[in-house]
Amino acid sequence: MSLSEKGREAGIKFSYKGSIIGIVLGIVLAVICSHILPAIITPLVAFFLYDRPKYKEAVEKILTQRRLQKEQEEKALEEARIKEEKKVEKKIKAVQKKNRENKASLYENIYTVAGYILANQEDLTEYIQNAEDVITYFKASKEERRLAVEAFNYALDPEFNVDEFVENYLLYIGKNRDYINYVLTYALIIATVDDNIHYDAKDRLVAIGKAMGSSMAALKRLFKSNGAEARFAREFEKQSQENLSDSTSVSSFESKNSSSGKKKSKKSSSSSYNHTGAEKTSEALDILQLDVSATFDDIKKAYKKLMLKYHPDRLASQGLSEDMVAIYTDKAKAIQAAFDYLKKLYSEVI
Questions:
Q1: What is the C-alpha to C-alpha distance for residues 331 and 107, in angstroms, rounded to an integer?
Q2: In Å, how far from its chain's centre is CA 220?
Q3: In degrees rounded to 5, what are phi and psi of residue 187?
């Protein structure tokens, strides 16, 4: 852009003050020298050394001021936009947090994922029994159970729109590592029979898990443990119930030592931890975030650290809702059961 164009943009008129003075001075010099040359050169010198630089300086000053003003306005608009986005994001996160703390919503998500990954299975008998065992373990209310069943059946439908489900999940629940791990873990348990998951169900679980925000590393850990954390939590719950039963009178216990007692025994056996030996030990160490080289001192340190982090009382003191505390309690139960198992194992070795 030429200087004249910049001048028009700045709205400044050219001043010939120096040139006029140069003309007057040039005439005086021409008279004194009796030569016309000073009358020509002096105004040109005044124009190029005074008028033009002054005009250019004034133009640049105005344009710089306007540019800075524009940048400030744009910066203010950008800051306002970012502030508004953060405000909206904060509101969305608050809603997502509230949704994550709703157990009915959690059960819907678990059973929707479970239904989707099992949609291609021909015989659902054993899977339905798994689903019943899990919802019983959750101690779900009638309404929560109804919503879970509806979600499961809805996801089994060939017309089920998984993309829409994932979109709504990310919108209303958001990406939360512990939450998605909880959902995928129990979906895996429902889809697992005799410690095996059908390859199609596994592929579908990986696909929907990644879409919902789980990392591939987290999915690998999930399949490696095969839901070990949830199994240890259920074992802890089972042991707690047995301890509670042991605290009742012997006569009351023995009075039911008939067919009903056998039935109870059978049920306890079916819900017990199926993994034993080295495999169970490895899973217990994984839960405590340790490996096979860990000493018992390492185990105690890891146990104390994790229990401090996930203890229900501490979580409640942080302002988490009762529903969310109940979700994390499963993790605390798994940590406790894993530690109890390893403690007993190490005491036997010693």
A1: 17
A2: 18
A3: -65, -40
For residue 289, CA distances in Å to 125, 218, 225, 284, 301 come to 35, 13, 12, 9, 11
Q: For the domain 277-349, what is the CATH code?
A: 1.10.287
Question: What kind and span of H or E run contains 197?
Answer: strand 196-197
Contact (Cβ atoms closer than 8 angstroms) between residue 277 and residue 287? no
Domain extents in the chain: 3-98, 101-226, 277-349
Helices and strands in the chain, H and E counts: 18, 2
Residue 9 in this model has a pLDDT that exceeds 60: yes
Backbone angles phi, psi at 192, to 5 degrees: -105, 130
Check whether domain 101-226 has CATH 1.10.3680, yes or no: yes
Provide, rounded to the nearest whole percent, the portion of the chain with pLDDT above 70.
81
Which run of H or of E encompasses 193? strand 192-193
Length of the chain: 350
**For 95-132, how does the pLDDT look when each residue is reduced to its tens digit (9 = 90+)?**
988 888 888 999 999 999 999 999 999 999 999 999 99
Q: CA-to-CA distance for 18 and 258, rounded, in angstroms?
A: 120
- Residue 196 bridge partners (DSSP): 193
Query: Directed axis angle between helix 322-349 and helix 277-287, to 10°?
Result: 130
Q: How far is CA 48 from the centre of its chain?
A: 66
- Name the maximum alpha-carbon separation found in the chain: 142
Q: What is the Rg, in whole angstroms, of the alpha carbon atoms belonging to the chain? A: 38
CB atoms within 10 A of CB 160: 15
Alpha helix segments (H runs only) across 101-212:
103-117, 125-137, 142-156, 162-172, 177-190, 199-211
